[in-house]
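In this supplementary section we document a worked example of the pipeline. Step one takes a protein sequence of length 117 as its only input; no multiple sequence alignment statistics are reported here. Step two produces a three-dimensional model, which step three serialises into structure tokens for compact storage. The input and output of this example are shown verbatim.
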Amino acid sequence: MFVAVAAENNMVAQHFGRCPGYMIFEVYEGRIDGQKEIANPGHEPGFLPRYLAERGVKCIIAGGMGPKAQSLFAEKGIETYIGVSGPVTEVIESFATGTLRSGPSTCDHTTGGHSCS
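The serialised model returned by step three reads:
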């Protein structure tokens, strides 16, 4: 399975769409079999779910994401983990071993504006 982690300076980025890039990991039977980094191609409504799905991504991990984006990822069959923070390497290891937990989004998209903490 390919897993994308929204990344900034080797940390999980606060906002999936506004991060500099994504670390894409191949996770298989509890181990990490490979990784690559791709630059964020831009933040347009609906683009990133399609873009990442075309690259085989089945899960995205980020600090924050609005409900509309979560819905668009779900439509593409991509599972979302939000409210995640910390070093990318530790987070992907937690995912691979099945211990990664989601939490509340670090972004507030419900007020009509955009405010990432």
